[in-house]
């Protein structure tokens, strides 16, 4: 014997009822089919009743709609004589319903008893239609078999009596029987109901009474999911879970099964199979005894409830006083307020509990009344209510056998900047629940789902600012490497924001790198740094990284807010790390406190591993004594390229065309770019330094930098003659020019030097950089790092490496 229950959507249309018939006909066993009302009908019936009691005539329109819906279904399913017979039954039931509702309208009263009578009409109608549609099926009136007390609206089942009646009714039964769900009656034979979702309950009572070998709940989803699939696209069906896990997940918002359903079948050890009527071939979820030996994974699912208020009762007068909890929860129970979560500090100084927000005011009032004397005497403070909250819970029986779950959970949530307002865990260790702001719910679900269910993949969400030479190159590198990183490192890099100085585009579902520019042009909103920053923060997405590939001062000003919002920063822009020392320290400190990253490896030497090496030296206890370096790719290129037929002005243009120079090449020519780089190296070596501490020996007079960019290009050829003269002299002395940065004993200096053959800088070709660190450990032979020090491709690669560092893979 099997019991199958079909919900409202499963029987919501003629087409779906045909599917139901197919499913039932394919069963090998004897089956009892319990059905809900046609989807949405019970709401319409109750609405009609409410309209009637309010005296509005609208209930007639609602009734017409209910009639038409049933007639349509009958019309589509039946033919000839059978159609007339079914129509007759349906019309008879609808007339009966109409009379009760007219009565409600006339006397202007709608008691819970009448509501129970009215509420079950939908199931009575649907079960008659379906029993007629399935050839050979019988019909049984569940309301006569399931007995309850007389608490109309929330009747309690008399299991002993119901079991006996069900067993008698099905004694010797074989074949198919269709029964209405939800309906029951009291000892006087008056209609009662089993609560919304009660059709599941009807089916469970039948299954338990008849020792069915399985209870199948046919619905419109594939089963219990690891998380709400409307929020977590990657949520998947849980194949099997225990009765307790199903109960917990149902309580925390997974609306797959009506929670009371589980108890009667659990007591008899009958498994519950959840199936999708629209996809009968899908496996579904099996609810059964817990797997022996704890073979199941520790966490089965994540669930959440929104629109929660947290009420806190606090006061020194509560410490060590017995009976406080009893009075508190007694007061709530008297007001019929359901408490969803309780958290109490071991000091007993405060108790926080969560209720549905619509109940918060009543709860506050009930407690204030109960503790009026203590509040007046200041033993208890004013009751505090915080609304706009959600409860999230992870559920799994095997958490008990596994250490480190709570540690991993709260570490992941904390790193993503989600504040946890309250926590509760029962000693059964079946569930860990915590309270967050509604606005943090999506992010919380995502990070927790990713870390417990998809832990083989790490997703990093990238917000790009600046898509010029470096930024554009970076995106192409990411595109080329995306698939490999996913396959080999299980790292998913997702572009979720992109902006230049004109437009910005954000999409939490991802922006394909192929064609991102066209999409930015077509769909992008007008850009603005503040607006982009706010949009990044507001998206509140998990594992975010903001990648700055501009040279903008204003962009660097966004970092503190972004870091404070737990957004990691990877930047090619040198402005922040070379800004005032206090600001540099502040940014590093925020990142450290938040457990996120602020990375700027490309600020010195483009893609060369200079800052990371320096960090390694310092972290391992070495002390930097001297830094000597050629740090400008542009200047090195210029001094390696300048020749009799290639004047200074031309080399500057060439450096720009090669992508070595800053967007504004005057930053390179004035030495500012090298000053910034030296400052960053000195700071990362552990020393304090500011711009004013660096001596700059300029090689181009200031007047060349005073005007606009146009003025600069117009006048730059005036440098040529003088430089050519100096170059010839240098060549004759077998020397070369290098723009050198040096730090030693607290003194920092940058400037043009004439380098003799044999010096490590002499052979430095093209745009290459070279850094020499003299340290306590690298003393006689300094550590040298040398290679391409500028260029879009190598810089983009360095930024890319920093992004991968953020992901910690
Ligand atoms: N080239 C190299 O070898 C290296 C470069 N770097 C650094 O990389 C950074 C980028 O350089 P590069 O790619 O050459 O520069 P580009 O001029 O080619 O690109 C700059 C990008 O930033 C955007 N941008 C500029 N200002 C703003 C703003 N206020 N708001 C939004 N977007 C803005 C630009 O948008 P739009 O096009 O709309 O103006 C453009 O997309 C610089 O900080 C540079 O110092 C670091 C190491 C080496
Ligand atoms: N403009 C810079 C680029 C790298 O930081 C340089 O020329 O070195």
- Give the DSSP E fraction (strand runs of 2 or more residues): 15-25%
CATH topology of the largest domain: Carbamate kinase
Q: Report the count of strand segments.
A: 29
Average predicted confidence as pLDDT: 94
Structure classification = alpha/beta
Q: Bound compounds, please?
A: NADPH dihydro-nicotinamide-adenine-dinucleotide phosphate, the ligand N[C@@H](CC=O)C(=O)O
Q: Quick one: CATH superfamily of the largest domain?
A: Acetylglutamate kinase-like
- Envelope shape: elongated
Uncertain segments: none
Discrete helix count: 31
CATH domain class name of the largest domain = Alpha Beta
Query: What count of domains describes the coordinates?
Result: 4
The separation of the N and C termini measures 52 Å
Strand order of the largest sheet: 3-4-2-1-7-9-10-8
CATH architecture of the largest domain: 3-Layer(aba) Sandwich
What's the gyration radius in Å? 37 Å
Helix percent reads 40-55%
Largest sheet: 8 strands, mixed
Organism: Sunxiuqinia elliptica
Protein name: Aspartate kinase
Cofactor: a metal cation
Subunit structure: Homotetramer.
Question: Gist?
Answer:
This is Aspartate kinase. With 809 residues, this protein is of the alpha/beta class. The protein has four domains: 2-160 and 170-221 and 256-289, Acetylglutamate kinase-like (Carbamate kinase); 301-453, VC0802-like (2-Layer Sandwich), CATH 3.30.2130.10; 458-604, 3-Layer(aba) Sandwich (Rossmann fold), CATH 3.40.50.720; 611-790, Dihydrodipicolinate Reductase, domain 2 (2-Layer Sandwich), CATH 3.30.360.
